[in-house]
Every structure is written in C-alpha cells, then in structure tokens.
User: What shape does this take?
Amino acid sequence: MPYLRLVFEGLGETVLYLKKNKVTDALLRNVPFSSKVIRWKEEVYFATPVNLEKVDGGTALVKPGTVGFWTPENSLALFYGNNQPYGEVLDIGYILGPLHYLRWIEDGSEVRVEEYKDYGKEAEVAAFLRNQGIPAATRVWEEYPSVVVTIVNNHFVGAEIFVEDYGFILESTPLFFYDQCIIGNALFESMKRLVKEPLRLDLNEEGYVILSAYLREKDKIPITLISISASYNYIMRSMASKYALLPL
Assistant: This one.
C-alpha cells in the first residue's frame, strides 16, 4: 500500500496510508500538487487534480481516521472526529498517527500533496516498523520530527514516536482533553487504574490525556504499540460501559 505526504501551511505534515486502487493510483500520478483546505465539522477536505467518473463502492459511514475520496468534487477528505460524510465517499485509506493535530488546520490554508519519502534519524525506526508489518512514516509537525503509526484493531489507534539520544517516547492519540476540573480528575483516576506498566496515563504538551511509554530499546517498540492499541480500546470500552449505566 502506498503512502502520501500532506504539508499544511504553517503547521507541518500528515502522512496517509492508502489502499491500492484506481483512485490512489490517479492521486499518485498527479503529485505534487497544491490546494486550499476547506473545514467542515471535524473534517478537512480539498480539491485534487484527479477527475473520475462515479465509482461504485462508496460509503456514508466512516471511522475517525478514515481518508475518503468524494467524487462529486474530486476531493480528498480527512475525517479526524465523529462527524459523518455529507454523502458517500470512497474509503481509500487512513491517517497515520494521532488525529488531534488536524483540529489546528485553518480553513482556506494551503496544503501541498507530495510523494512520500523517509528522512531524518527517524527513518531507521520507520523502516524497522514497516519490516515488522506496522505502517509507519516520518513527519515533522511544528518543527518536531517523529515517526507516526496507526494500529488497526476495530478502531484506528494512532501513535507518535519521538526518537531521542537516550531512548524512545511513545504517545497515543488523545483520550480526552484534561481541564483539571473535578470531573476531569475523576475520569483521569478511573482510567489510571486500567493502565498497566510499561504504559502510563500521561499528558501530552497540548494538555490531552494520552497513553505513553518510555523505551530504551528499539526492538520493544512493536509490542508496546500493540499494547497501546489494546489498552486504548479497553479503556474506551470500559468507560462507555461504566457511564452507560448511569441514570440520566
């Protein structure tokens, strides 16, 4: 499956993991190109040079992290939240890494779509993970380089790996935004009981609650990523089950 790099004006890069089909083949034939972003609910989309007739196999139900192609406007759509498409889209892949970064993309800003290539000291880690069967790519966001991955297990669970001289820091896609109120504190403590070492319930630099891990050895990254995905899904199921029982 091919990769595609998106460079968002003033922010950084997002990497897409694409299925192999005639839509993605057409996209790859047309890179590089630039476009203007349109924001809609929890989605960003933009026009592409690809011009396709209506293609069968569309869906009007997507998961957060889905990459869709909307044929009425030949647009690429990135779904980073809970909204559903305005009409049917072709499911052509998914976004690598945490999704909350896409909330900062401004309407009308420029996006440049490029062929994907590894770079930086993170390239070795990305190649290692791909050899282990985990889709992975290098990227820079607001001048911070990292490796982005997504584990597919019922849901897309994105993670980011920061490569330091003293080891590797793994951070999951956010669970919720921590605002230090009494409900937030209670929720944090409830989730904390569900997390087992070497994983930690943690905060990222933007104030979101995440799962994180510190590793000294590269060889432990794949199994830790699987643990992050499993723990993330377990926490979400546990919280949904717990609060579904509360009276309205």
Q: What stands out?
A: The domain at 3-115 is CATH 2.40.100.20 (Cyclophilin). The helical segments are 22-30, 123-131, 182-192, 221-244. The chain has two domains: 3-115, 123-244.
